[in-house]
Specification:
The protein is of the alpha+beta class and 216 residues long. The protein has a domain of 127 residues: Ribosomal protein L10, N-terminal RNA-binding domain (Alpha-Beta Plaits, 2-Layer Sandwich), CATH 3.30.70.1730. It contains six helices and five strands; from the N terminus they run αβαβαβαββαα. β4 and β5 form a beta hairpin. α1 packs across α3 and α4 packs across α5. The longest helix has 40 residues. The termini are far apart.
């Protein structure tokens, strides 16, 4: 700019700073939107995490050139930029949804970091699931194998028990318990109790006759 006015320099500096700080910037043409519609659009973009600002094309062009960005093809007609701090998907969705009821709003393209997006890229961005949903899906994908592994660990003892039971039934039942090899297996009826006299069989006289009564 030759001898620019201070207010123009300030706007260029503002646009350059916003483009540098933003995670994304989506350029739109808003010609035909009335004041009420523009206010409604601002609110929806704010709720989605964006900030909607209107600038002159010439000043945006100077700021973009200072940053080495090729945005000239988008800087035609009336231009408003949705600056995004955070997830650009929600802002892209908000622009898409608003444009369905307000055809005067046209998305021209934008920036994702330092990558230039065309209108098709922004439409594709609007179809992506929000970051929170993607993270939840990723967490689920990581957790699923762990849950399956935990289920496998629980299933192993059950399967072993079922298999053991089937084997026992196949062999005709559980084997009988054997006597303990450390116990005395001697028949107790034939063993005299130490320290006690043996008893005679009932009906048998075991008394010895005196010597003098015995026949010689």
């Amino acid at each position: 700019m030759d001898n620019p006015r201070p207010e123009k320099v300030a706007v260029v500096d503002e646009v350059r700073a916003r483009l540098t700080a933003a995670d994304a910037a989506l350029l739109t043409e808003y010609r035909g939107l009335n004041v009420a519609a523009t206010s409604a659009l601002r609110r929806s973009l704010t709720d989605a995490g964006g900030e909607y600002k209107i600038y002159k094309n010439t000043l945006v062009r100077f700021a973009a050139r200072d940053l080495g960005l090729e945005l000239d093809e988008m800087l035609t007609g009336t231009t408003a930029i949705a600056f995004v701090a955070g997830d650009p998907v929600n802002v892209a969705k908000a622009l898409r949804d608003f444009s369905k009821g307000n055809p005067a709003l046209v998305v021209k393209g934008g920036l994702l970091g330092d990558k230039v997006l065309d209108a098709d890229d922004v439409r594709a961005l609007a179809e992506v699931e929000p970051r929170e949903v993607l993270l939840a899906r990723l967490a689920g994908a990581i957790a699923a194998p762990m849950q399956q592994f935990a289920g496998l660990l629980q299933a192993v003892p059950r399967s072993f028990a079922y298999g053991l039971k089937a084997l026992i039934e196949e062999k005709g039942g559980a084997p009988e318990a054997t006597a303990d090899t450390g116990t005395d297996t001697t028949d107790s009826d034939t063993t005299a109790d130490p320290g006690t006299e043996a008893t005679a069989e009932p009906g048998t006289d075991t008394t010895a006759e005196p010597a003098e009564n015995q026949e010689s």
